[in-house]
Amino acid sequence: MFLAWNEIKNNKLRFLLIVGVLTLVSYLVFFLSGLANGLENLNKEAVDKWEADGVILTDESDINLPQSTLAIGDFEGDGTDEYAILSQVNSIAKTDDIKTNVSLFGINEDEFIMPDVSEGKAFSKMGDVIADDSLKDEGFKIGDELSLSSTDITLTITGFTEDAKFNAAPVLYGSLETIQEVRFGDAAEQKDDQINGYVIRTDNLESVAVDDSLSVVSTQTFIENMPGYSEQNLTLTFMIYFLFIISAVILAIFLYVLTIQKISIFGVMKAQGISNSYLSKSVIAQTFILSLAGVIVGFTLTLITGYFLPAAVPVAFNYMDMLIYAAVLVIVSILGALFSVQTIVKIDPLDAIGG
Questions:
Q1: What's the pLDDT score for residue 171?
Q2: Measuring CA to CA, which residue among 195, 239, 221, 158 is closest to residue 75?
Q3: What is the percent of the chain with per-residue pLDDT over 90, rounded to a whole number?
Q4: Nearest to 123 by CA among 140, 104, 138, 136
Q5: pLDDT tens digits, residue range 189-217?
Q6: Which of 10, 30, 215, 260 has the most Cβ atoms closer than 10 angstroms to its Cβ?
Q7: Contacts by residues 269-274 (CB-CB < 8 Å, ≥ 24 positions apart)
């Protein structure tokens, strides 16, 4: 450690360049992890708030909520602790000067998926809805009357709830009657018993008894089958993994070049009796110091960047994940330094000093 630290102090610019590269790589890794978490939350916020264990959909829907249609009464709660009906439809909501994609959830007010109201009041009559509070950032407010695409129904925002997005769209919660009117229009009375699925709480999904035409899936499976969810997560995860490899390669190249430049010095040190073990430990310690410094600076810059990002950017930092990624970056950097260690071990003192 003494030799490693002294060399860093005597060659500040050279090692600052290495720390700078590691800072940029770690900054990108941390930011991508925050982006991956943010996009993941955009898809599943509303589902997470249900605190449910599973969902019942039709077998032919292929675990796709909008494609599932069943009737109230197709399931009577056998094998569950609680269950709630859910009707869902996507639409575009707009006021005179604002419009946005929304997902409308029709629920019963007395069932467990009823959201907590953070501002305003719950829906109490036909046409009332509780909106995801992200809509406030777009200019929507309590009392706004919303017209919807493909229907003449007008909804009124009576309150807001926190963290309620489904498949990246803000959710509007309304009574089952309200959402059925939006879904079916003039045919709402004839189809008032048609819903998209049941949300259930149970200790054992296998004990839930349903007809052959229905499927019971875990909440996690339901989330993973949302359109684009798995593809998006896999893409960002692969990018992070590739950055780990890139950081190891970059540091390996830097250290290898530095080692090649110091072959004669290492040769003299070995001729003086300094062991391969001591020199190898010095390189590893040097790599640890450099990678740790780069990761800490990258971590700090990421948090500062996150503080100034607008709410529209879907970034959510998971500090535990970031600490794990930081540890991985340090470890892969040390692995990259092993090439230099191998070179040092092979140095012949006589050849190195021209003897």
A1: 94
A2: 195
A3: 35
A4: 104
A5: 777 788 999 999 999 998 898 888 899 99
A6: 30
A7: 270/347, 270/349, 270/352, 271/349, 271/350, 271/353
Average pLDDT in the chain = 87
Structure-token match 């190249």, residue found: 253
What's the length of the chain? Answer: 355
What would the DSSP string read from start to end of 171-225? Answer: EEEEEHHHHHHHHHGGGTTTTTTEESEEEEE-S-GGG----TTEEEEEHHHHHHT
Angle between helices 276-308 and 12-50 (to 10 degrees): 50
Phi first, then psi, for residue 312 (nearest 5°) are -70, -20
Instruction: Give the integer Cα–Cα distance in Å for 130 and 175.
Output: 10
**Which segment, 113-117, 306-310, 338-342, is predicted with the most confidence on average?**
113-117
Long-range CB contacts for residues 94-100, cutoff 8 Å, separation at least 24: 94/146, 94/147, 94/148, 94/149, 95/139, 95/140, 95/144, 95/145, 95/146, 95/147, 97/139, 98/138, 98/139, 98/140, 100/135, 100/138, 100/140, 100/170
User: What are 42's two structure tokens?
Assistant: 């955009």
C-alpha to C-alpha distance for 173 and 103, rounded to whole angstroms: 9
Q: What is the dihedral of CA 261, 262, 264, 265, to 10 degrees?
A: 160
pLDDT digits (tens, 9 = 90+) for 57-83: 999 988 999 899 998 888 888 889 999
SS3 state at 83: strand
Q: How does pLDDT run across 81-93, given as a tens digit for each residue?
A: 999 999 999 999 9
pTM of the model: 0.77
Distance CA 75, CA 213 (A): 11
| DSSP H or E segment with residue 328 | helix 319-346
State mean pLDDT over 135-151. Answer: 88
Contact yes or no for 345/280 (Cβ under 8 A): yes
